[in-house]
């Protein structure tokens, strides 16, 4: 439930994403990433490394109970809705 998403294309206010972030577990560095704010509504069919399109969810925040197990993720979070094709 600790998803990190990298923006590959498109336009997002850069103040809403991390320009540079390092995963302290793997040691890998990433650019233009953010944490998923609404993991309960993220499609299960999307796996690590998959590419997908999305838009930022501007509706009211939805409740989501998540596991408190720690895995590093960027401090900046966005609620997104995946566009299914």
Topology:
Elements: E1 4-6, E2 18-22, E3 29-36, E4 53-56, E5 77-78, E6 80-83
Parallel strand pairs: 3-5
Antiparallel strand pairs: 1-3, 2-3, 4-6
Residues in β-strands, percent:
25-35%
Radius of gyration: 13 Å
- Number of domains as seen in the coordinates: 1
Query: What is the number of helices?
Result: 0
Written as H for each helix and E for each strand, in order along the chain, the element string is EEEEEE
Number of strands: 6
Main beta-sheet strand count, sense and barrel state: 4 strands, mixed
Molecular shape: globular
List keywords for this structure.
31% strand, single chain, two-stranded antiparallel ribbon, mainly beta, 85 residues
Structure description:
Strands 1, 2, 3 and 5 form a four-stranded mixed beta sheet that branches. Strands 4-6 form a two-stranded antiparallel ribbon. The radius of gyration is 13 Å and the shape is globular. Helix content is about 0%, strand content about 30%. The protein starts with a strand and ends with a strand. With about 80 residues, it is mainly beta. It has one domain (about 5-85). Strand 2 and strand 3 (about 30-35) form a beta hairpin. About 10% of the residues are buried.
């Amino acid at each position: 439930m600790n998803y990190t998403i990298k923006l590959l294309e498109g336009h997002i206010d850069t103040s809403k994403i991390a320009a540079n972030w390092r995963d302290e577990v793997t040691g890998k560095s990433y650019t233009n990433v953010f944490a998923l704010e609404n993991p309960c509504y993220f499609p299960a069919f999307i796996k690590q490394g998959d590419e997908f399109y999305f838009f930022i969810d501007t509706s009211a925040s939805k409740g989501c109970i998540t596991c408190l197990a720690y895995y590093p993720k960027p401090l900046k979070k966005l609620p997104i809705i995946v566009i299914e094709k």
